[in-house]
From TrEMBL:
<dbReference type="InterPro" id="IPR029057">
    <property type="entry name" value="PRTase-like"/>
</dbReference>
<feature type="domain" description="Phosphoribosyltransferase">
    <location>
        <begin position="144"/>
        <end position="240"/>
    </location>
</feature>
<dbReference type="GO" id="GO:0016757">
    <property type="term" value="F:glycosyltransferase activity"/>
</dbReference>
<dbReference type="InterPro" id="IPR051910">
    <property type="entry name" value="ComF/GntX_DNA_util-trans"/>
</dbReference>
<dbReference type="Pfam" id="PF18912">
    <property type="entry name" value="DZR_2"/>
</dbReference>
<keyword id="KW-0328">Glycosyltransferase</keyword>
<dbReference type="Pfam" id="PF00156">
    <property type="entry name" value="Pribosyltran"/>
</dbReference>
<protein>
    <submittedName>
        <fullName>Phosphoribosyltransferase</fullName>
    </submittedName>
</protein>
<dbReference type="InterPro" id="IPR044005">
    <property type="entry name" value="DZR_2"/>
</dbReference>
<keyword id="KW-0808">Transferase</keyword>
<feature type="domain" description="Double zinc ribbon">
    <location>
        <begin position="20"/>
        <end position="72"/>
    </location>
</feature>
<comment type="similarity">
    <text>Belongs to the ComF/GntX family.</text>
</comment>
<dbReference type="InterPro" id="IPR000836">
    <property type="entry name" value="PRTase_dom"/>
</dbReference>
Length: 243
C-alpha cells in the first residue's frame, strides 16, 4: 500500500469514528446511558486508578513512595514518571479501541484523565512519543499525540511534533519478550532541536518496561534537555527489571 493510500485509509476510519462520536451514545463498556460521554458514572468510578504510593522515577508501586530498587540499581535517563491508571481491564480495552479501532472519542476521555495529574512541573515543551513513518501511515494517527492534546491545552504548552522522530520502524514492543525491548528500541529516535537547559514532558499511552521512554529520554538529554519527565496514561505493574 502506498503512503498516500495508507493515509487515506486511516483518515477515512478517523472520519467515521468522529462522525459516530457526534451521535448520542451509550457507555462504551456497559452500554448503559452515558449522557453523551464515553463512560457512564458507574464505569468511570470503577476505573483502576494507580496507587499514590509509587516510585517517583518509574511509577511502579512502592510501600512508602520511595525510589524502587530497579531505579536505584540502574537509573533510567528520564527523571520522573506520572501515571493515572494501572494497565488492566477496562483501561486496556479503551487504549486498544483508540489505537486499533480508531475510536477517537476515547482520546478526549483518556487525554482529559492525563491532564488531571497534579504535578508542579512546568515544561518547556511536550513531546508525544513518535511513531515511525510506516506505523503512522498504517494507523493514520499517533495515539500519543491525541491524548497529549488536552494536556497541552491545560498546561498552555506547545506540542513538539516536527523535530523529534522515530527514524526506523522497530518491531512492536508488545510483540517482544521484556528483555528484548531495550535492544529493539536502541537508537530508534532522532532530534534536530537544541534542547539546552529545557524541561521536556514526554507523553505516551502505556508504560510497560519503560524501554521506549528511556531511549527517547536518552536522545533528548543528548540534545541538551536538563530534565525529562514522563506522563503516561497507564502503567503495567509487572516488575520492570533491567532496561
Amino acid at each position: 500500500m502506498s503512503i498516500a493510500a495508507g493515509m487515506a485509509t486511516g483518515l477515512a476510519k478517523a472520519v467515521k469514528s468522529c462522525a459516530a462520536a457526534l451521535l448520542p451514545q451509550d457507555c462504551f463498556l456497559c452500554a448503559a446511558p452515558a449522557d453523551d460521554k464515553l463512560l457512564c458514572p458507574s464505569c468511570a468510578a470503577g476505573l483502576p486508578y494507580l496507587s499514590a504510593a509509587r516510585c517517583p522515577v518509574c511509577a511502579l508501586p512502592t510501600p512508602d513512595s520511595s525510589v524502587c530498587g530497579a531505579c536505584l540499581k540502574q537509573p533510567p535517563h528520564f527523571d520522573a514518571t506520572h501515571a493515572v491508571f494501572r494497565y488492566e481491564a477496562p483501561i486496556d480495552s479503551l487504549v486498544q479501541a483508540l489505537k486499533y479501532a480508531h475510536r477517537l472519542a476515547s482520546a478526549d476521555f483518556l487525554g482529559s484523565a492525563l491532564a488531571q495529574i497534579a504535578v508542579p512541573l512546568r515544561p518547556d515543551l511536550i513531546v508525544p512519543v513518535p511513531l515511525s513513518r510506516a506505523r503512522l501511515v498504517e494507523r493514520g494517527f499517533n495515539q500519543a499525540v491525541e491524548i497529549a492534546r488536552p494536556l497541552a491545552r491545560a498546561l498552555g504548552t506547545a506540542l513538539e511534533l516536527d523535530h523529534i522522530h522515530r527514524r526506523r520502524d522497530t518491531r512492536p514492543q508488545a510483540s517482544l519478550p521484556w528483555k528484548e525491548r531495550a535492544k529493539n528500541i536502541r537508537h530508534a529516535f532522532e532530534c534536530d532541536l537544541d534542547l539546552g537547559g529545557k524541561t521536556v514532558l514526554v507523553v505516551d499511552d502505556v508504560m510497560t518496561t519503560g524501554a521506549t521512554l528511556d531511549e527517547l529520554a536518552r536522545t533528548l538529554k543528548a540534545h541538551g534537555a536538563s530534565r525529562v519527565e514522563n506522563r503516561v496514561l497507564a502503567r503495567a505493574l509487572k516488575d520492570r527489571g533491567p532496561l
